[in-house]
Amino acid sequence: MPVRVIIGAQWGDEGKGKVTDFYAKEADAIVRFQGGNNAGHTIMAGDKTFKLHLLPSGIIREDKLSVIGNGVVIDPDVLLREIDELRAMGILANNLRISDRAHLIMPYHKLLDGAEESFRGKEKIGTTKRGIGPCYSDKISRLGIRMEDLLDPEKLREKLNFVIPLKQKLLMAYNIDVQLQIEPIYAHLLEISEKTAPLITDTSVLLRKMLKDGKSILLEGAQGTMLDVDHGTYPFTTSSNTTVGGAVTGTGLPASAIENVTGIVKAYTTRVGEGPFPTELDDEIGYHLGQAGKEFGTTTGRSRRCGWLDLVVVKHAVETSGITEIALTKIDVLTGLKELKVCTAYNIDGRITDNFPAGKAESIRPIYKNLNGWDELDTKMVLKEGHTSLPKEMREYMAFIEKYTGARISMVSIGPHREETIIL
Ligand code: GDP
Ligand code: IMO
Ligand code: MG
After folding, report:
1. Which of 179, 214, 262, 404 makes a 20 to 30 Å CA pair with 206?
2. What is the arithmetic mean of pLDDT over 125-146?
3. What ranges in 174-272 are assigned the alpha helix state H?
4. Which DSSP string corresponds to 262-330?
């Protein structure tokens, strides 16, 4: 399996961290390709729980190479803090490489993220306020500071001299009373440079060499398809391409090297932050899903909005990224519900469609198919005997998803722990 890509098929938090950790054991390198520390990926291995925001989930397997690709935006303080936290948990994190083309999240990006959100008022996105959007904006505007700049102090200073006065004007336009000081920012970056320089390299060359040598590479997506800046619920999205194209541009690997695209689908739907969510449940079932699924954000601690599985969304993800197989997660959370609904189409002002529209998402009325629930899930027995001992109704639920999306379910996750995983 030369290259496998992990893609979130909904609005993030589908369980990408857990599934990446599972496939990491058969990979030589694990690579993050987009996003930044807006992500929160949880892995429960043995008696330890790891919550990673920026580092690839493969970092906890110390014999693997972990790579932060060029498509990622890096808050250098978070990077160093996360490495320290792992070391405190006994993980050395020595096998990490960072792309020289990756952009840095600067202090003014975080200030501007907050300022833009306040400016939007009730139209706010509900961002994680980590500076993600302003950093990607600078990348596209060609005003960004990159990891390579940390290796060239002269060039770094020149760039800061040019860009900081501009950012100061922007902050003033937003009425933010902060004076950006070039010298301390420069000095801090030089400290960061000292600590990170040995990790910075052309990771695209490194990864292409691994590919040539027949190594297998796992690309770990962050966020989810509906947060993709092109294919998601714009403007209520993140600022990167979370779909499969991001894995190509964010690593420098050729598209033709991708053999498998694994879509991570939560058995119901959640969303953090603002924006359309057609199958959202504002009732006791929604509350139940949030409690049973422990749906609180890994990054900001916010409660996640919960709702029924939306197959229009999942089909959108399958088709946009060419998902070849589905890892279905958190199906254990549905145990005990008598009747389950899955959304199979939308009614938008009287027009029926099974395609997610570019706009008008607030006018969507979901059309549901009712399926039977199951009373009990004997996790121990299933782990011993395999998928044939999953409840009959659960297997019907899974068969319905496969038939609707045309993608095979190759893995079912029935609990947060590493071993609570069934391969089909
Ligand atoms: P990610 O952002 O896609 O990596 O997902 P998060 O880690 O933010 O959120 C998923 C949460 O569900 C984490 O707390 C996981 O430990 C947990 N989880 C993952 N798979 C399962 C599962 O199959 N069942 C249950 N109950 N929890 C799961
Ligand atoms: P993982 O990788 C869920 C959401 C934010 C907000 C929007 C834009 O754990 O699945 P941003 O800070 O990126 O500009 O915020 O995107 N968001 C996530 N929601 N899981 C995530 O990551 C997310 N990363 C960003 O809540 O609505
Ligand atoms: Mg998450």
Report:
1. 262
2. 98
3. 182-196, 203-212, 244-249
4. EEEEESSEEE-SSS--TTB--SHHHHHHHHHTT-B-TTT-PBPEEE-EEHHHHHHHHHHHT--EEEEE-
**For 90-109, b where at least 16 C-beta lie within 10 A, e where not — what string?**
ebebebbbbbbbbbbbbbbb
Q: Is 265-423 a domain of CATH 3.40.190.10? A: no
Superfamily of domain 103-196: Adenylosuccinate Synthetase, subunit A, domain 2 (1.10.300.10)
Atom of ligand 1 nearest to the CA of 49: 16
Residues 323-358 have pLDDT tens digits of 999 999 999 999 999 999 999 999 999 999 999 999
Of 225, 422, 224, 232, residue with least CA distance to 329: 422
Confirm or reject: Cβ of 242 under 6 Å from ligand 2: no
Residues with active-site annotation: 13, 41
Annotated domain spans of the chain: 3-100+198-261, 103-196, 265-423
At 15-42, the pLDDT tens digits run 999 999 999 999 999 999 999 999 999 9
Which CATH number, 3.10.20.30, 3.40.440.10, 3.40.190.170, 1.10.10.10, labels domain 3-100+198-261? 3.40.440.10
Q: In a mutational test of the pocket of ligand 2, which residue from 32, 123, 132, 272 has the highest number of ligand atoms less than 8 Å from its CB?
A: 272
The pLDDT value given to residue 342: 98
Do 103-196 and 265-423 come out as alike in CATH topology? Answer: no
Question: Given this model, what pLDDT does residue 1 score?
Answer: 58
Place of tokens 């600022």: 239
Q: Ligand 2 mean position to 300 CA, how many Å?
A: 10
What long-range pairs does 390-393 form, CB within 8 A, spacing at least 24?
390/422
Q: What residue owns the CA closest to ligand 1's atom 10?
A: 15
CA of 11, nearest ligand number: 2
* Cβ–Cβ < 8 Å for 188, 236: no
Tell me the best of 112, 120, 127 to mutate to test the pocket of ligand 2, counting ligand atoms within 8 Å of each CB and taking the most: 127
Ligand nearest to the backbone CA of 333? 1
Q: What is the pTM of this model?
A: 0.97
| Tokens 């020289």 belong to residue | 100
Measure the CA–CA gap between 281 and 260, rounded to whole angstroms. Answer: 33
